[in-house]
């Protein structure tokens, strides 16, 4: 069995400690880090987002964050062997799990599942307690603790 320090989750933890201040210094939020290893090669996926509230992360800011992350990894050299660095956003149809995720999704379409029902609509407001979803049947206010699964959705024309 590999030593704890060599396991992907241990590496992701070390990378999180290293990169949180770097990403924060770029004015962004470090959503998660994933590492995979195949033989001598690794992939380091760094997912970044705006810190809070609605808005979109543009390619210029993503490029600046990528350069800062790459420089920090080059200087600290925490990944053994060769690796590919991927820096991206959570994506247009991201999973929504935290109050911050719902606040970031204000103005966007979402599919929300509670224990009782599945709803689709546009998130018009969100805070630490819940969200308001504008559905075809009218606005629905949902406490976060009732939400079992949610995802932003892109609706077609």
Architecture overview:
The chain is of the alpha+beta class and 157 residues long. It has two domains: 10-88, 2-Layer Sandwich (GMP Synthetase, Chain A, domain 3), CATH 3.30.300; 94-152, SH3 type barrels. The protein is built from three helices and eight strands; from the N terminus they run αββαβαβββββ. It has helices at 8-25, 59-76, 99-104; strands spanning 29-38, 41-49, 82-88, 109-114, 118-126, 130-135, 138-143, 147-153. The strands form two sheets. The protein has a five-stranded antiparallel β-sheet. α1 (8-25) crosses α2. It is elongated, with a radius of gyration of 18 Å. Residues 1-6 have low confidence and may be disordered. It is found in: Cytoplasm. Its main location: cytoplasm. One of its GO terms (biological process) is translation. It holds the Pfam family RimP_N.
Q: DSSP helix count?
A: 3
Average per-residue pLDDT, rounded, comes to: 91
How far apart the termini lie comes to 52 Å
CATH topology group of the largest domain: GMP Synthetase, Chain A, domain 3
Number of domains: 2
The SSE string, one letter per element, is HEEHEHEEEEE
Corresponding CATH architecture of the largest domain: 2-Layer Sandwich
Task: Tell me the radius of gyration.
Answer: 18 Å
| Sheet with the most strands: spatial strand order | 7-6-5-4-8
The CATH homologous superfamily of the largest domain is called RimP-like superfamily, N-terminal
Strand content: 35-45%
Largest sheet: 5 strands, antiparallel
What's the CATH class label of the largest domain? Alpha Beta
